Amino acid sequence: MHGLIRDFKGFALSGNVVDLAIGVILGVAFGAVVDTFANDLLLGLIGAVFTVPDPSNLSLGLNGTEVYYGKFLGALINFLLIAGVLLMVVKLLMRVGLNFRAQGNRECDYCKEFIPVDATRCKFCTSEIEPLMAD
């Protein structure tokens, strides 16, 4: 039982898990901002052009059936905005020279502590090890 707790602690407190948690939290907050921008501002302007009070109810009559495209238009605008911003952020990070490292951890062959997959020396027992992935 103690080994399981130690392994979970090593996994949960590793830098990659913490980085992922921060990224998810920031992603949710950013998604809310983009959602509000797209649905309240952009779709509001589209609704004003088509004189529809609620842009999510925009529809097209086709063979006696209403095809609602307003919600799809909002989701499409959200997706395009998020994809565009993420593309710009990645390009900016690459331009300033940020090196992307291999992600993940593995066990040291000697002391069984968790270390990055591309490590060449264990930070706990200082043993030289063969990296799983090259830079």
What does this structure look like?
- With 135 residues, the chain is mainly alpha-helical.
- The chain has two domains: 99 residues, Non-ribosomal Peptide Synthetase Peptidyl Carrier Protein, Chain A; 34 residues.
- It is built from three helices and four strands; from the N terminus they run H-H-E-E-H-E-E.
- Strands 1-2 form a two-stranded antiparallel ribbon. Strands 3-4 form a two-stranded antiparallel sheet.
- Helix 2 crosses helix 3.
- The chain is elongated.
- The model has no long low-confidence stretch (mean pLDDT 81).
The total count of strands amounts to 4
**Over all CA atoms, what is the radius of gyration?**
24 Å
Tell me the CATH superfamily of the largest domain.
Large-conductance mechanosensitive channel, MscL, domain 1
Give the end-to-end Cα distance, rounded to a whole number of Å: 36 Å
Q: What count of helical segments does DSSP give? A: 3
| Low-confidence runs | none
CATH topology of the largest domain: Non-ribosomal Peptide Synthetase Peptidyl Carrier Protein, Chain A
How much helical structure, as a percent, in the residues? 40-55%
What gross morphology would you assign?
elongated
Summing up helix and strand content along with how strands pair, one would put the structural category as mainly alpha
CATH 2nd-level architecture of the largest domain: Orthogonal Bundle
Strand order, sheet with most strands: 1-2
Strand content: 5-15%
Main sheet attributes: strand count, strand direction, barrel closure = 2 strands, antiparallel
Order of helices and strands: HHEEHEE
Overall pLDDT = 81
Number of domains: 2
